[in-house]
Design brief:
The complex is a heterodimer of chains A (about 250) and B (about 300).
Chain A: E1 2-14, E2 20-33, E3 38-42, H1 49-57, E4 64-69, E5 72-73, H2 79-85, E6 87-90, H3 102-110, H4 115-124, H5 143-156, E7 161-165, H6 173-190, E8 193-197, H7 201-206, E9 209-214, E10 217-222, H8 224-233
Parallel strand pairs in A: 3-8, 3-9, 6-7, 7-8
Antiparallel strand pairs in A: 1-2, 1-4, 4-5, 9-10
Helix pairs in contact in A: 3-5
Chain B: H1 4-14, E1 23-28, E2 31-36, E3 41-45, E4 52-56, E5 61-66, E6 69-71, E7 77-86, E8 91-101, E9 108-118, E10 123-133, E11 140-142, E12 145-150, E13 155-164, E14 168-177, E15 182-191, E16 196-205, E17 210-220, E18 225-234, E19 238-248, E20 253-262, E21 268-276, H2 280-288, H3 293-304
Parallel strand pairs in B: 1-5, 1-6, 4-7, 5-8, 6-8, 7-9, 8-10, 9-11, 9-12, 10-13, 11-14, 12-14, 13-15, 14-16, 15-17, 16-18, 17-19, 18-20, 19-21
Antiparallel strand pairs in B: 1-2, 3-4
Classes of the chains: A alpha/beta (about 250), B mainly beta (about 300).
Chain lengths: ~250, ~300
């Protein structure tokens, strides 16, 4: 349902001598996501996980390559257009909106302000208190609450493809299990193709396929069990280029 | 008689489609248009620049007072001084507001100077909306002044809104709080084009246990300019908070100067101030929910001024 072909994305970076150079963050990714499957994307910091997901949503524009969704070329389509095609994105650090109630935000996501519909969405995502709708999506929400808001607005879209960027950030350990179950339920009941970016074992175990990214490339694809040894072996250090040698005292590991 | 334009202005500033329930005083072009008093709320003309004195009897609850002002006369600069005497343990809503319709190139303006005296344990909710419209190019000016004096355990909530169309506004809010009294002021102002709005606020926490919160939200479009000056001075064990946020669109400019002064060791005063454009993360989020860029901007502003 989603095919990524030879995707490249770079950013400009200042060198020590003040000149600019291009740094490739995504260095030729090819992958096909199958309808209704649950994917976990993992890999070291700086491997390009978030960048790849933002390229799919249209938040970043690739240098080259193609992204095809249900047979439609996404290149050139805006974020809004991609959203209307059925792609939803859950941000790692969700935006907060001064003065805007959760009711308004959820209403935008669901495309209706019908109370009954909003209540059904709350129950679907396990937010049992309807009073929560009148809370401001502002700075007073806790880290866990804002992530629940983010999750609810993503699911309210009834997306064909849902991308969750580190959904467990700021969530307490006891909530991660139910969150995994919720995403699996959405996958099974609505056939939502699900991509979760995470380091959390619970998400990796729930995935049909684990995609391991390293240095902007797909390093490995497989089940959790056959990816686990790779995850243990992989160099999770992102200070590699600053490192002199294995035993150097500057090593931050 | 009220014509169609008057009715439109009344709708904009006081949400009035018909003659209001309860007490009211409608002022048009510097003259009394109509007035109604109730058993508990009296309205009489005072000697100060054709203003009114409104007296709410002690213990009056669940009643409202509407005192809208409308203007559509060229070269009229209407100044009015009103006083509100709110009796002990009463709880009333006051809806004020001024609507200007400008049909010529001549200026029109209004300055409503409102003094509130709240007796022990009384509560008011004061809603004031300012709005100007019309095809004329004349300058529309609104310079409101509110002065509030709160006796023991009195409480006031003020919603001050300038919706649009006002070329120049200079607001002055002053308050002095007695023991155990509290106030919440929310001010929302949107300017566009070359409009200019200044808000000066001075809150004095005089009594023990008094609490004041002032929230200012500004949306500054076009090349307009809005400035906010707010101060809280505490002379007792008290709590005060200032929150001023300005969203700059286009080429708008803003000066925000919050000031806190404590003259008592147990005063707790805080402020939060922010000036900036709409955050990119907010736009991305709403666009990822299917809104186009312009719709996303408008929903963010709408929420901010909610």
């Amino acid at each position: 349902m989603l095919t990524i072909k030879d995707l490249v994305y770079s950013v400009s970076e200042l060198k020590d001598d003040g000149t600019e150079k291009r740094k490739e963050i995504i260095r030729g990714v090819d992958f096909t996501f199958v309808q209704g499957k649950f994917y976990a994307v993992t890999g070291p910091n700086g491997s390009g996980k978030t960048t790849l997901s933002k390229l799919i949503m249209g938040i970043y524009k690739p240098d080259s390559g193609r992204i095809v969704f249900d047979g439609q070329e996404l290149t050139g389509l805006s974020i809004s257009e991609r959203a209307r095609l059925g792609i939803a994105f859950s941000f790692q650090h969700p935006a907060r909106f001064k003065g805007m109630s959760f009711r308004s935000l959820l209403g935008i996501a669901a495309g209706t302000d019908d109370e009954k519909v909003l209540h059904r969405i709350l129950l679907r995502v396990g937010l049992c208190s309807f009073d929560f709708l009148d809370k401001e999506v502002g700075s007073k929400l806790s880290g866990g609450e804002i992530k629940k808001v983010e999750l609810a607005t993503t699911i309210a879209r009834n997306p064909r493809l849902a991308i969750f960027d580190e959904p467990d950030t700021g969530i307490d350990l006891w909530t991660i299990g139910p969150m995994v179950e919720l995403l699996q339920k959405e996958q099974h009941e609505n056939g939502t193709t699900t991509i979760v970016i995470s380091h959390n074992e619970k998400f990796l175990r729930a995935a049909d396929e684990v995609i391991l990214l390293k240095n902007g490339k797909v390093a490995h694809v497989g089940s959790f069990d056959n990816t686990l040894p790779m995850l243990k072996d992989i160099d999770l250090c992102s200070w590699g280029e600053h490192c002199l040698e294995e035993t150097d005292a500057r090593c931050y590991r | 008689m009220l014509d169609a334009i008057d009715k439109q202005l009344l709708k904009a500033v006081a949400d009035l489609e018909q003659i209001p329930q309860g007490a009211y005083n409608i002022r048009k072009n510097g003259q009394l248009e109509s007035r109604k008093v109730t058993a508990n709320i009296n309205i009489v003309a005072n000697a100060r620049k054709s203003g009114i004195d409104i007296t709410v009897a002690p213990g009056t609850v669940n009643e409202s007072i509407h005192i809208p002002v409308i203007l559509n006369k060229a070269n009229l600069l209407d100044i009015v001084e009103n006083r509100f005497f709110i009796g002990e343990n009463s709880d009333v809503t006051i809806v004020a507001g001024c609507g200007i319709h400008c049909g010529s190139d001549k200026p029109e303006g209004h300055a409503g100077i409102h003094e509130f005296y709240l007796e022990k344990g009384s509560r008011i909710r004061y809603v004031e909306k300012h709005y100007a419209a019309g095809p004329g190019s004349g300058k529309r000016t609104l310079n409101p002044v509110t002065k509030v004096y709160l006796a023991e355990n009195a409480h006031v909530e003020m919603d001050l809104v300038q919706i649009g169309g006002v070329d120049k506004a200079e607001r002055k809010n002053e308050a002095e709080l007695g023991p155990g009294s509290s106030m919440l002021i929310t001010e929302k102002v949107m300017t566009d084009g070359k409009q200019r709005a200044v808000s000066n606020n001075k809150i004095i926490l005089r009594g023990k246990g008094s609490r004041a919160e002032l929230i200012s939200r500004s949306v500054i479009k076009g090349s307009s300019k809005q400035d906010f000056f707010g101060s809280i001075d505490a002379y007792a064990q008290s709590y005060g908070h200032l929150e001023c946020d300005a969203i700059i669109m286009d080429k708008g400019t803003n000066e925000t100067v919050p000031a806190l002064r404590s003259f008592h060791p147990d005063a707790e005063l805080t402020h939060e101030a922010a000036i900036g454009k709409i955050a990119n993360a907010q736009l991305m989020k709403l666009m990822s929910l299917g809104l186009e860029y312009d719709e996303a901007v408008s929903r963010i502003i709408q929420g901010f001024l909610q």
